[in-house]
Amino acid sequence: MKDKVYLHPLPVRIWHWVNAICFFFLLLTGLQMRYGDVVTIIPFRTAVTIHNIFGFLLAANFLLWAIYYHVTGKVFSLYIPAKPGQIGIFLKSLIRQSIYYGYGLLIGERNPHEPKPENKFNPLQKISYHFVMLFMPIQILTGFMLWNPSYFSRWIDLLGGILTVDTIHVFLTIFYLAFIVVHLYFATLGPTFFSHIKAMFITGYEEEH
Ligand code: HEM
């Protein structure tokens, strides 16, 4: 018998669509700007323009995400891995979840995490989404500084110069690239190949077996 649980409200789904589209264009154009001497898919100037447009769209979308999660009061319950008194319990469930992904899943065991709207992420998701969203403002602000260095010159000086700002931006890009590879793999690990993807992009309902 299949149960369904409503995990992803429409505003979160819309945020996620826009976010995924922005990341696609930002990574494509960012890599083009960096490796234009190796391969040219998009002319450099066009890549810069597209990168700037999607950078601003990503920033606005992030702001809406932050407002939505703070207004609904869910950001702390969903995105903060554990309260100080609950670290032991969190670590236990983190180990159990890791064993499930490393072994239990392969022999057909049941996922130890039962998602509920107020606790929809398993411990591994909590940690990874926590850092993905925590680093987002850093990526956006360093992007703004690289977009208009003279306007943000005082901030750039505070951080130690444009090279430092650029290094932070590129390091976080590498982090996001790695996250996306792992995220796409985990997105296919639902009851069927597309069930998590269908839930996040279309229905909002996760299926449970
Ligand atoms: C086409 C590419 C993508 C696919 C197919 C995809 C798939 C999914 C799926 C199935 C979920 C719901 C299951 C879960 O909570 O793990 C999800 C949630 C999430 N994804 Fe993605 N994703 C994509 C791109 C991205 C990107 C680029 C980011 C950020 C860098 C991202 C960040 C997140 C976050 C933070 C959540 C939790 C959202 C919430 O419920 O508050 N995703 N994604």
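qc> The domain at 3-208 is CATH 1.20.950.20 (Fumarate Reductase Cytochrome B subunit).
qc> done
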